[in-house]
TrEMBL record:
It comes from Streptomyces cyanogenus. Coiled coil: none annotated. Its EC number is 5.4.2.2. GO terms for molecular function: phosphoglucomutase activity. Residues 7-132, 156-256, 266-371 form the Alpha-D-phosphohexomutase alpha/beta/alpha domain. Keywords: Isomerase, Magnesium, Metal-binding, Phosphoprotein. The keyword Magnesium applies. This is Phosphomannomutase/phosphoglucomutase. InterPro entries: A-D-PHexomutase_a/b/a-I, A-D-PHexomutase_a/b/a-I/II/III, A-D-PHexomutase_a/b/a-II, A-D-PHexomutase_a/b/a-III, A-D-PHexomutase_C, A-D-PHexomutase_C_sf, Alpha-D-phosphohexomutase_SF. Its cofactor is Mg(2+).
Length: 454
């Protein structure tokens, strides 16, 4: 096929429409290129439940095997299950998924041995360049001694490993509604939750990559509505929603109200610090709530602030030896999980915290939710740089305000802050604002939007 790889090879992964933008032939070239760039003797490959995933995954595996690489195929899995396999087997890995994107999309998340990320600056550019060359000149001839393809079950080992990282032995019985969104949570939750004192109410556990009930993207409030209604209707203690590849988890309390991912970050950070003797570094990106660094310090830890994006989080996790990291987008990273993100482990922490005491979840998380946030507000602009400069001009020089450029522009006062970041792919500016109270947040949000859209 003729393909524009600049459109599908993103900063952190491969993502595009099948078969319009890429197909099994191109997947085979990606497999061969991955083998060349990693120089690995063996790799592990897995896939989600999308109709195109098995074929793409097998083509990738064959492409790598043609370069002499032995391939372990683990079949249906969540993204964090693939990271588990990469870590436990100490092999580079490839996960075929388009996460929360609509059904016609598919993609590849790549990692080196031990689940170390492969992104634009860590191998993905070279993989793209090789695939482009082979697209133009023809695929390389298979090596004289091709690698082997073998299959391996990892689900139960993955589940046991997660349960070994959280003490759930003495929790009280809980009723939990889980919305898998017809994604890979329907595959992993029954095994991970097995043997725990839980009454599980499953929603949309049937694996179906056409997503017949709602998009598997809980970051969009529209996709949480079913769960929010079901939790109080069932008299459940909480609800948990997973995205399509089940590497992110979102939580709603007993009333059906969403719990901020920042509050979950703070809760898990406190637990991980306690587990590590009240010391350790915790990573958070710059648009998580101020609650997060406050809680980290209160529990003896050292907070480290990063740019938005999992490659930055993972790099800082490795650099600082951090025990935990969290993002506003509900990605949660654990040192004991090869610095990789796993929403399932975060969910187990929430269950352990709730089950270890008697108050409802809404009361438990109140201590971790101290500010009022705007959520992310996108504005289409003609000139991103000009609007950012206008914000800087409006606020610089004020004695009560600090500015920083870690990621976009952050403007902070005593009890409020806002951040404006340009999108890398669209003519958008993304605003996040937070303050101690609703009135202040509304005021600073509207001031910023007036300049952005002015």
């Amino acid at each position: 096929m003729t393909a524009d790889l600049s459109q599908i090879v993103k900063a952190y992964d491969v993502r595009g429409v099948v078969p319009d933008q890429w197909d099994e032939a191109l997947a085979g070239l990606f497999g061969a290129a991955f083998a060349e760039v990693t120089g690995a003797a063996a790799i592990v490959v897995g896939h989600d439940m999308r109709p195109s995933s098995p074929g793409l995954s097998r083509a990738f595996a064959r492409g790598a095997a043609d370069r002499g690489v032995d391939v372990t195929e683990i079949g249906l899995c969540s993204t964090d299950q693939l990271y588990y396999a990469s870590g436990a087997l100490n092999l580079p890995g490839a996960m075929f998924t388009a996460s929360h994107n609509p059904a016609q999309y598919n993609g590849i998340k790549l990692c080196r041995a031990g689940a170390a990320p492969v992104g634009q600056d860590t191998g993905l550019t070279q993989i793209r360049e090789l695939a482009e060359r082979w697209l133009a000149q023809g695929a390389p001839e298979p090596v004289e001694r091709p690698g082997t393809l073998s299959s391996r079950e990892t689900l139960e080992d993955y589940a046991a490993h997660l349960r070994s990282l959280v003490d759930l032995t003495s929790i009280r019985p809980l009723k939990v509604v889980v919305d898998a969104g017809n994604g890979m949570g329907g595959h992993t939750v029954p095994s991970v939750f097995a043997g725990l004192p839980l009454t599980l109410v499953p929603m949309y556990f049937e694996l179906d990559g056409t997503f017949p009930n709602h998009e598997a993207n809980p970051l969009d409030p529209a996709n949480l509505v079913d769960l929010q209604k079901r939790v109080p209707a069932e008299g459940a203690d909480l609800g948990i929603a997973f995205d399509g590849d089940a590497d992110r988890c979102f939580v709603v309390d007993e009333n059906g109200d969403p719990v901020s991912p920042s509050a979950i970050t703070a809760l898990v950070a406190a637990r991980e610090l306690a587990r590590n003797g009240g010391t350790g570094t915790v990573i958070h990106n710059l648009i998580t709530s101020r609650t997060v660094p406050e809680v980290v310090r209160e529990n003896g830890g050292t907070p480290v602030r990063t740019r938005v994006g999992h490659s930055f989080i993972k790099a800082e996790m490795a650099r600082t030896g951090a025990i935990f990291g969290g993002e506003h987008s509900a990605h949660y990273y654990f040192k004991d999980f090869w610095n990789a993100d796993t929403g399932m482990l975060a969910a187990l922490h929430v269950l352990a915290a709730l089950g270890g005491q008697e108050v409802p979840l809404s009361a438990l998380v109140a201590q971790y939710d101290r500010y009022t946030g705007s959520g992310e507000i996108n504005s289409t602009v003609a000139d991103q740089a000009a609007r950012l400069a206008a914000i800087r001009t409006a606020y610089e020089g004020r004695a009560d305000v600090t500015l920083d450029d870690l990621d976009g522009l952050t403007v902070a006062g005593t009890d409020w802050w806002f951040n404006v970041r340009p999108s890398n792919t669209e003519p958008l500016l993304r605003l996040n604002a937070e303050a101690r109270d609703e009135a202040t947040m509304t005021k600073i949000r509207d001031e910023a939007l007036a300049i952005i859209r002015g």
